What we know:
Thiol Ester Dehydrase, Chain A, six-stranded antiparallel β-sheet
Amino acid sequence: MPDLPPFPADPTELARFLDYRGRHRLPGLLGIEIVSLDRGRCVMRMEVQRRHEASHGYLHAATVVALADTAAGYGCIASLPDGAIGFTTIELKSNHTSTLLAGYMSAEATMVHGGRTTQVWDALITAEETGRKIGLFRNTQLILYP
């Protein structure tokens, strides 16, 4: 388990903490930004750039999955039950319905189930300019305790 300080309880402080921690990790490398973070809900966005494309010139599916999984994961952290110290994703289901070549896409992740051992999150990825659905996701998170 990584050596992390306790997560801040305040959602604004937690968002700052996660933004700082993610800056030089995958979320930061992809350009993922937190829009809002609350118990049971997280909204994130990223600007689609050439570095997010697959070799065939279209948006890489893994980029969309990373945005969805990050939104669900940050939401999970904001929604941990008392005594929990973290989580790990144990299942992720994705349906890719469209693509985006330029502009911003956003992820809205909402908690569907919030138990003591697992959480289930749905995430909808959309093109911000048009509202077109890019992908639908369901994540199951295993809650970790010391």
